[in-house]
Fold:
Amino acid sequence: MPNAARWAATITLTATAVCGPLAGAALATPSPTALYAPSALVFTTGHGEFAAEATPERAVTLNCAPTPSGTHPAAVSACAELRAVNGDFEALSARSDVLCTREYDPVVVTVEGVWQGKRISYERTFANECVKESYGTTVFTY
Amino acid sequence: MPNAARWAATITLTATAVCGPLAGAALATPSPTALYAPSALVFTTGHGEFAAEATPERAVTLNCAPTPSGTHPAAVSACAELRAVNGDFEALSARSDVLCTREYDPVVVTVEGVWQGKRISYERTFANECVKESYGTTVFTY
Structure:
């Protein structure tokens, strides 16, 4: 084999070895028959006092089993927070390091889906966006 | 530069050029301030006649805006199907090419979340798993 051809073959093999595992991870689809209790949620937020009257302006998904994923911008830490309270949204607490104005511009949050095999249907209204984001650490930051 | 060093540099550049876009796609997180109406859903399925009594055995997420994603095993085609019926789950029809037994082992499906900015809350019971999967093409195959 001429020297250049040998190097070309090496480049191809290197690219395959380096990219192979990455491509595999990116393309892998989860097994439809899961051996774990599912945790899959959809979060919405909209302006208003009640979900029934508020148009959902944003909606994100969060999967926590077997690994964190979804369109939630902080899936890993949101899953960790929910695990810490065992999926009980009422048990999340407001952070004391955040200062919010008292402006009343209510935002309503909903969470639907399943946490460790148990159905979740949660709705909560916050006085304004700042108060919403101060509740928990990253769960309602989307 | 010696010949071997030059080739080594070429290998690194090639690997970067080939892997770069792939790594970018795998790591990209969607913008939290979306400029499109959200479409984010969570699907569950469990054995029983009513969702309130059935333990959700599987739960998957499906995002259709701006691009299909989620733990739904056929996100791209499920989104295409839902777009075709404008998110109206009642408008999905059973495929005529599937033969199912008449065995009664009911499975209940729920869909919660948002389709193009409109809240979705859907529940449907099928006589058995085969009948469920024959409804639509891939939407309920998870």
Remarks:
- The longest helix of chain B spans residues 3-27.
- The beta strands of chain B are 40-47, 58-63, 107-115, 118-126.
- Helices of chain B lie at 3-27, 75-84, 129-133.
- The interface with chain A takes residues 7, 10-11, 14-15, 18-19, 22-23, 25-26, 29-30, 32-34, 38-42, 44, 51, 55-63, 69-71, 73, 112-114, 117, 119, 121, 141-142 of chain B (CB under 8 Å).
